[in-house]
Design a protein that fits this description.
Distance between the termini: 57 Å
Number of strands: 9
Helix content: 40-55%
Strand order of the largest sheet: 6-5-7-8-9
Number of helices: 26
Mean pLDDT: 79
Largest sheet: 5 strands, mixed
Radius of gyration: 24 Å
Low-confidence stretches: 1-9, 130-187
Structural class: alpha/beta
Shape: globular
Number of domains: 4
Length: 552
C-alpha cells in the first residue's frame, strides 16, 4: 500500500526530529564543530531566509571573525564536505527514525530530507541500515519546506542543549584541580563489567561456512572486552553494568546483516551499528574488532558513559579516564595534562594505572624534546620515567610501546622485539598504539615479532572495521600501512576523514599525508617538508624513508 504524502508544513518537525537523532549519536557528540555546523544549517533551513553563503556559514555557523577572508581559507568548504561524508557514514549504520535522511545537495547549503538510498545513492543505493526504532513505513516529505510550525525550533534547541551538556562534561576534569571530585557519588568507582551475548542465525552461519562462528565471535568479543583498559568481562551468570550484543538483524529480515548494540546501566541502548556480513570469518573479525575499538578504548563510548555516571567521584580508575580524556588531541584542555598526571600519581602511587601515567609523562617530555629539535635519547628524566613504568609493570602496553619506539629510533630491531610483543599482547586492540608501534617496526623485516602472528595484516584490517577512527588513530594507521608499503589501504583511508577535529599538528600532518596519498606529484614536490613534519610522529628514520618511498 502506497504511503500518503506528508503535508509540507510537517517538514519542519520531521527535519528537527531527525537532526536531533543525528546530534545524539556518539560520533557527533564527540565532534562539537560538526554538531554546531549541523545545528546552524538546520536553524537556517527552518528560518527559510534565502540562500546561505559560505561567509555566513564561516562567521555565524563556525565562529570565524567578521574579517574572515574566504579567498585565503577553505575552512567552511572543508567542514561542509566533511559533514556530507559524516552524514553518509551515520546513515550507513543507522536508518532514519521516520525513513527520511538528512542530506546536503552539492552547491546547496540548506538541509533536505529524502529516503537514504536517494539521499546517498553512492553509499546506500542498494543497502539498508538498521532501523533506529520500530516505526511505520517510510514517508515522503517535500524538500522545499514551508516556514516551520511552532515548536520545531524548540525540539532542535533541546537536542542542542543535551549536546552542550555532554560537551561540558568533557571539560569537567578541570574540577579535579579545585578539589571538587571527592566525597560524593561512587567514591570507589572501578572498571565496569560488560556481558557479551552473541546470537547469529543459521542462515548467516551457513553463508560463511562456519557452524562454530557464533562461538568464535563470542570468544573474540570477550577477549577484546577482557583485554581493554577500561572494563572487565562479566562472566555468565554474574551481574553486569553493560550488555554488548551481536545478533542477526531481525528487523531487516535478511541473513546477511548483523546488529551490534551496547546497552547501558539503565538498559537503554547507547550504541547500534549494522554490519554487512563479509565473505569470510577473518574479515568479520577485522570489521567487528574495529567497531569494538570505538566502544572500548580509553576515549571510546564506555569511558564517556563512565565519566558521566561518576562525574564527581574519585578513584584511580576515574583518574585514568580523565587523564586519557585530557590526552586526546581533540580536547582543548590538553595543556593541563602534566598537572593532572602528577595529581593522579600523588593520590594513587600504587595504582595499577600508575605505569600508564608514568609512560604518559615520559611521552610528553620526549615530544617536548622533538619540538626543540633534540634527538630521542635513552637518558634523562623521560627515560627514567619509562624505566620506572616498566619496573612497575613489565607488561604495561603504554610503557612497552614507548620503550619500543625509543629503541627503534636507533634502528635496534632485536632490542625492540620483546617490548613490541608485550605491547601487542595487551594493547593490540588499541588502534593508536598498534598503528604507532607498527609504523616504527615496519622496516624490521618479516622475521620481526613472528610470535605475534600476522600483525601486519591486522593493522590494515583496522581501517575496514572502524568507520569513525579518531584523528590520531587515523593518522597512525595510515602511517603504518604506508611504512608497510600497503598503498591500497592508505588510499582507502585517505578517502575518508574522521568526524572529530584534532589539534593543529595532528590535523596538519593528516591533511598533508592525505594530499600526498591522493597525488604522487604533490608528494614528490613537497617531499622535504613532509619528511620534516613526519619526524614529529615517526621516530625511526628508516620508517620515515619507507613512508616517503610509498608516497612517491
Amino acid at each position: 500500500m502506497t504511503a500518503e504524502p506528508v503535508p509540507a508544513y510537517d517538514f519542519a518537525d520531521e527535519l528537527s526530529a531527525e537532526v536531533a537523532r543525528v546530534l545524539a549519536d556518539p560520533a557527533f557528540v564527540k565532534a562539537p564543530v560538526q554538531s554546531r555546523l549541523l545545528s546552524y544549517l538546520c536553524e537556517q533551513t527552518l528560518a527559510g531566509d534565502g540562500p546561505l553563503s559560505q561567509y555566513a556559514i564561516a562567521v555565524d555557523g563556525l565562529g570565524r571573525e567578521d574579517s574572515y577572508d574566504l579567498t585565503s581559507d577553505s575552512y567552511p568548504r572543508v567542514q561542509i564536505s566533511r559533514l556530507r561524508r559524516n552524514l553518509a557514514d551515520y546513515y550507513s549504520r543507522i536508518a532514519p527514525g521516520h525513513g527520511l535522511a538528512v542530506h546536503l545537495d552539492k552547491g546547496d547549503y540548506r538541509l533536505h530530507l529524502a529516503p537514504p538510498g536517494k539521499a546517498y545513492p553512492e553509499r546506500l543505493g542498494n543497502t539498508h541500515a538498521e532501523p533506529e526504532d520500530d516505526v511505520g513505513a517510510a514517508r515522503t516529505v517535500p524538500s522545499d519546506a514551508a516556514r516551520p510550525a511552532r515548536g520545531s525550533r524548540d525540539l532542535l534547541l533541546r537536542a542542542a542543549g543535551a549536546l552542550a551538556a555532554l560537551v561540558i562534561l568533557a571539560f569537567g576534569l578541570f574540577n579535579l584541580f579545585s578539589g571538587s571530585w571527592g566525597g560524593t557519588g561512587s567514591a570507589g568507582a572501578a572498571a565496569p563489567r560488560i556481558a557479551v551475548d552473541v546470537d547469529i542465525a543459521p542462515l548467516a552461519l551457513g553463508k560463511l561456512g562456519d557452524p562454530q562462528l557464533a562461538e568464535h565471535v563470542r570468544f573474540d568479543m570477550e577477549s577484546q572486552v577482557a583485554g581493554s583498559f577500561i572494563a572487565t568481562l562479566a562472566r555468565t551468570g554474574t551481574a553486569a553494568d553493560y550488555r554488548l550484543t551481536l545478533h542477526s538483524a531481525p528487523a531487516l529480515d535478511a541473513p546477511d546483516r548483523l546488529r551490534l548494540e551496547l546497552f547501558d546501566r539503565e538498559g537503554a541502548r547507547a550504541y547500534v551499528s549494522t554490519l554487512a556480513l563479509p565473505a569470510n570469518s577473518e574479515t568479520l573479525d577485522a570489521v567487528l574488532g574495529g567497531e569494538l575499538a570505538q566502544l572500548l578504548t580509553p576515549g571510546g563510548l564506555v569511558a564517556q558513559l563512565e565519566l558521566k555516571a561518576h562525574d564527581r567521584a574519585r578513584s584511580d580508575y576515574l583518574c585514568f579516564l580523565r587523564s586519557e580524556s585530557a590526552a586526546r588531541p581533540t580536547v582543548t584542555s590538553t595543556h593541563i595534562l602534566p598537572a593532572l598526571l602528577d595529581r593522579c600519581l600523588a593520590r594513587y602511587p600504587r595504582s595499577d594505572y600508575a605505569p600508564f601515567w608514568l609512560a604518559r609523562k615520559a611521552l610528553l617530555l620526549y615530544q617536548a624534546d622533538l619540538r626543540q629539535g633534540l634527538p630521542i635519547r635513552r637518558e634523562g628524566e623521560a627515560w627514567d620515567l619509562t624505566t620506572r613504568a616498566l619496573e612497575a609493570d613489565p607488561f604495561n602496553s603504554y610503557a612497552n610501546a614507548l620503550a619500543a619506539r625509543i629503541v627503534l629510533a636507533d634502528g635496534e630491531c632485536a632490542a625492540a622485539e620483546s617490548y613490541f610483543l608485550n605491547m601487542i599482547e595487551r594493547g593490540g586492540y588499541y588502534p593508536v598504539l598498534a598503528g604507532m608501534i607498527a609504523t616504527e617496526a615496519a622496516p624490521c623485516g618479516s622475521e620481526f615479532a613472528q610470535a605475534a602472528g600476522d600483525w601486519r595484516a591486522r593493522i590494515g584490517a583496522m581501517s575496514q572495521g572502524n568507520r569513525t577512527l579518531d584523528p590520531l588513530s587515523q593518522l597512525y594507521v595510515m602511517l603504518a600501512v604506508l611504512a608497510l608499503e600497503d598503498r591500497a589501504t592508505a588510499e582507502r583511508l585517505a578517502s575518508t576523514r574522521p568526524i572529530e577535529e584534532s589539534s593543529a599538528d595532528v590535523e596538519g600532518m593528516l591533511d598533508e599525508l592525505t594530499r600526498a596519498v591522493e597525488s604522487r606529484g604533490y608528494a614528490r614536490s613537497n617531499a622535504t617538508e613532509i619528511e620534516a613534519h613526519l619526524a614529529r610522529f615517526v621516530w625511526n628514520p628508516r620508517a620515515r624513508t619507507a613512508i616517503m618511498r610509498s608516497l612517491r
